[in-house]
User: What shape does this take?
Amino acid sequence: MKILLLCSGGDAPGMNRFIYDIYKEFQNETYYAAAGFDGLINGRIYPLKKVVKEEDKNKAGVVIKTSRCPEFKEKKYFKVGMENAKKFDFVVICGGNGSERGAKELYENGVKTLFVPGTIDNDVADNYYSIGFSTAVKECVYAVQNVMPSIESMNRSCLFEIMGRECSQIATKTAKIVKADYVAKDKIEYEKIVDAILRKHEKGKSATILIRENLEDIEKVAKTLNKMLGIDIVKFHIVGRTQRGGAPTKEELEMADKFAAATIKAIKKGQAGRVLANKILKVEIKDFI
Ligand code: F6P
Assistant: This one.
């Protein structure tokens, strides 16, 4: 059997573990397309044994590399990628929403494809956990824990910008864990943030405000709030790529193992589809929709 593995979109902690597990099971039967669909189009396809190393299995990052590849949506490039994919008995694609669309296209064109959710954003439809989410939340919690002592020492409040593209799951989960004073999921409600800050400052305390990225420029938000408050006490901190580069949590490694086990099972049964986590985080295969 010949199995092709590729990761696409943003890297997500836990992807390396997933790759390692698949390699351990199928060894010389496994290949990878370097940097995702880009490698598939350009024929950069190599044996997985070239890059998989035991010591990377618990680390963030992606040994087979990943990329965003808008060209794959264009007919002429898709056709080349598809021809390369057809040389394999199975193609396993780990990524987010965009990668799922690519996986579905391949499947509909006769490629036996398995899609595995791998994105910190946790925004894959019908899926309760995507590889990377737990670590991204952990990094946001750490950021709050590491920044707030300094903020509190100077009687300030802080805005934390949280990655997640258009999805607020990382921000929401973090807010629950750290008991944030306000979380902006889809819009920034200035009056409410000012109220949250004032409530805290009246008691001599500091407010923790989480803002999902891609809403407004965080520096401008802080400036506006300071103007509204009439005093320069609001600082901001962008959590940024530590959310992707942080060491995978134990839950991450466990979930990556679960996704790998379900993928291996599906390959052995000859079953294509979406490898999804349900509400109780059991991983099962569903049809492409
Ligand atoms: O999709 C994962 C993600 O980290 C998003 O949260 C973020 O908006 C985006 O990728 C950043 O992408 P890039 O690393 O390509 O700038």
About this structure: The chain is about 40% helix and 20% strand. The longest strand covers residues 90-95. The pocket of 6-O-phosphono-beta-D-fructofuranose is lined by residues 9-10, 68, 96, 119-121, 163-165, 213, 244 (CB under 6 Å).
